[in-house]
Amino acid sequence: MDIDIGIKKADRAKIATGLSHLLADTYTLYLKTHYFHWNVTGPMFNTLHLMFETQYTELALAVDLVAERIRALGHFAPGSYSEYAKLSSIKEADGVPKAEEMIRQLVEGHEAVVRTARSIFPATEKATDEASADLLTQRIQLHEKTAWMLRSLLEA
User: Fold this and answer.
1) Where are the domains of the chain?
2) What is the pTM (predicted TM-score) of this model?
3) Where would I find the Ferritin/DPS domain in this sequence (predicted)?
4) Rounded distance, CA 137 to CA 40, Å?
5) Which of 1, 29, 66, 140 could pair with 109 as two cysteines, CB 3.0-4.6 Å apart?
6) Which segments of 74-129 does DSSP mark as H helices, in order?
7) How confident is the model at residue 1 (pLDDT cuts 50, 70, 90)?
8) Which of 88-103 are b and which e, b meaning 16 or more Cβ less than 10 Å from the residue's Cβ?
Protein backbone atom coordinates (compact mmCIF):
# COMPACT_ATOMS: atom_id res chain seq x y z
CA MET A 1 0.00 0.00 0.00
CA ASP A 2 1.29 3.47 -0.87
CA ILE A 3 2.34 5.78 1.93
CA ASP A 4 0.47 9.10 2.01
CA ILE A 5 1.68 11.02 5.07
CA GLY A 6 2.21 14.36 3.34
CA ILE A 7 5.92 13.82 2.69
CA LYS A 8 7.06 13.19 -0.88
CA LYS A 9 8.63 9.82 -1.66
CA ALA A 10 12.00 11.36 -2.57
CA ASP A 11 12.04 13.40 0.65
CA ARG A 12 11.19 10.32 2.70
CA ALA A 13 14.06 8.47 1.03
CA LYS A 14 16.55 11.26 1.78
CA ILE A 15 15.48 11.47 5.42
CA ALA A 16 15.55 7.69 5.81
CA THR A 17 19.09 7.62 4.42
CA GLY A 18 20.17 10.21 6.97
CA LEU A 19 18.41 8.32 9.75
CA SER A 20 20.19 5.14 8.65
CA HIS A 21 23.50 6.90 9.30
CA LEU A 22 22.15 8.03 12.67
CA LEU A 23 21.07 4.48 13.45
CA ALA A 24 24.52 3.14 12.55
CA ASP A 25 26.22 5.78 14.71
CA THR A 26 23.87 5.09 17.61
CA TYR A 27 24.32 1.33 17.41
CA THR A 28 28.10 1.60 17.12
CA LEU A 29 28.17 3.93 20.13
CA TYR A 30 25.90 1.52 22.01
CA LEU A 31 28.27 -1.36 21.28
CA LYS A 32 31.34 0.64 22.27
CA THR A 33 29.72 1.87 25.49
CA HIS A 34 28.65 -1.66 26.43
CA TYR A 35 32.16 -2.95 25.67
CA PHE A 36 33.68 -0.27 27.89
CA HIS A 37 31.17 -1.08 30.65
CA TRP A 38 32.39 -4.67 30.68
CA ASN A 39 36.09 -3.82 30.57
CA VAL A 40 36.65 -0.60 32.52
CA THR A 41 39.19 -0.80 35.36
CA GLY A 42 40.89 1.59 37.74
CA PRO A 43 39.98 3.93 40.57
CA MET A 44 36.82 5.18 38.81
CA PHE A 45 35.60 1.64 38.10
CA ASN A 46 32.32 1.78 40.01
CA THR A 47 31.38 5.25 38.78
CA LEU A 48 32.17 4.48 35.15
CA HIS A 49 30.73 0.97 35.21
CA LEU A 50 27.37 2.34 36.38
CA MET A 51 27.50 5.41 34.15
CA PHE A 52 28.27 3.33 31.06
CA GLU A 53 25.40 0.97 31.92
CA THR A 54 22.94 3.85 32.10
CA GLN A 55 24.27 5.17 28.78
CA TYR A 56 24.17 1.89 26.86
CA THR A 57 20.67 1.17 28.15
CA GLU A 58 19.47 4.53 26.80
CA LEU A 59 21.25 3.93 23.50
CA ALA A 60 19.55 0.53 23.12
CA LEU A 61 16.18 2.24 23.40
CA ALA A 62 17.24 4.97 20.98
CA VAL A 63 18.23 2.44 18.32
CA ASP A 64 14.65 1.18 18.30
CA LEU A 65 13.19 4.70 17.99
CA VAL A 66 15.40 5.59 15.05
CA ALA A 67 14.80 2.28 13.27
CA GLU A 68 11.03 2.60 13.73
CA ARG A 69 11.08 6.12 12.28
CA ILE A 70 12.90 4.80 9.22
CA ARG A 71 10.19 2.15 8.85
CA ALA A 72 7.41 4.73 9.29
CA LEU A 73 8.94 6.60 6.35
CA GLY A 74 8.57 3.45 4.24
CA HIS A 75 12.16 2.22 4.19
CA PHE A 76 13.96 -0.74 5.69
CA ALA A 77 16.29 -0.06 8.60
CA PRO A 78 19.85 -1.37 8.32
CA GLY A 79 20.59 -4.06 10.87
CA SER A 80 23.90 -5.80 10.29
CA TYR A 81 27.41 -5.10 11.54
CA SER A 82 28.64 -4.80 7.96
CA GLU A 83 25.98 -2.19 7.11
CA TYR A 84 26.71 -0.26 10.30
CA ALA A 85 30.44 -0.32 9.57
CA LYS A 86 29.77 1.28 6.17
CA LEU A 87 27.29 3.86 7.50
CA SER A 88 28.78 4.86 10.86
CA SER A 89 31.12 7.78 11.43
CA ILE A 90 32.23 6.24 14.75
CA LYS A 91 35.26 3.97 14.84
CA GLU A 92 35.21 0.78 16.87
CA ALA A 93 37.47 0.57 19.89
CA ASP A 94 40.86 -0.92 19.17
CA GLY A 95 41.76 -3.11 22.13
CA VAL A 96 40.87 -2.17 25.69
CA PRO A 97 41.92 1.41 26.41
CA LYS A 98 42.50 2.86 29.87
CA ALA A 99 39.48 4.43 31.58
CA GLU A 100 40.41 8.00 30.65
CA GLU A 101 40.77 7.04 26.97
CA MET A 102 37.40 5.26 27.14
CA ILE A 103 35.84 8.50 28.33
CA ARG A 104 37.54 10.47 25.52
CA GLN A 105 36.32 8.02 22.89
CA LEU A 106 32.78 8.16 24.22
CA VAL A 107 32.81 11.97 24.20
CA GLU A 108 33.95 11.83 20.57
CA GLY A 109 31.22 9.27 19.82
CA HIS A 110 28.43 11.34 21.34
CA GLU A 111 29.65 14.42 19.49
CA ALA A 112 29.71 12.41 16.24
CA VAL A 113 26.08 11.38 16.77
CA VAL A 114 25.17 15.04 17.30
CA ARG A 115 26.86 16.04 14.04
CA THR A 116 25.08 13.24 12.17
CA ALA A 117 21.71 14.22 13.64
CA ARG A 118 22.27 17.88 12.76
CA SER A 119 23.15 16.99 9.18
CA ILE A 120 19.65 15.53 8.65
CA PHE A 121 17.75 18.70 9.67
CA PRO A 122 17.78 20.41 6.24
CA ALA A 123 15.98 17.43 4.69
CA THR A 124 13.41 17.28 7.51
CA GLU A 125 12.77 21.02 7.28
CA LYS A 126 12.38 20.92 3.49
CA ALA A 127 9.85 18.10 3.81
CA THR A 128 8.13 19.57 6.90
CA ASP A 129 8.78 16.26 8.64
CA GLU A 130 8.17 17.39 12.20
CA ALA A 131 8.25 13.85 13.61
CA SER A 132 11.78 13.20 12.36
CA ALA A 133 12.86 16.71 13.40
CA ASP A 134 11.50 16.10 16.91
CA LEU A 135 13.37 12.79 17.14
CA LEU A 136 16.57 14.51 16.02
CA THR A 137 16.11 17.32 18.54
CA GLN A 138 15.67 14.85 21.38
CA ARG A 139 18.72 12.85 20.29
CA ILE A 140 20.85 15.99 20.01
CA GLN A 141 19.86 17.17 23.49
CA LEU A 142 20.67 13.83 25.07
CA HIS A 143 24.01 13.34 23.29
CA GLU A 144 25.18 16.89 24.00
CA LYS A 145 24.34 16.44 27.69
CA THR A 146 26.06 13.06 27.84
CA ALA A 147 29.17 14.43 26.11
CA TRP A 148 29.28 17.30 28.61
CA MET A 149 28.97 14.91 31.57
CA LEU A 150 31.70 12.64 30.25
CA ARG A 151 33.92 15.61 29.37
CA SER A 152 33.61 16.89 32.94
CA LEU A 153 35.28 13.68 34.16
CA LEU A 154 38.41 14.62 32.21
CA GLU A 155 38.85 18.04 33.82
CA ALA A 156 41.80 18.40 36.16
Assistant:
1) 9-152
2) 0.96
3) 19-155
4) 31
5) 29
6) 81-87, 99-126
7) confident
8) bebeebeeeeebeebb
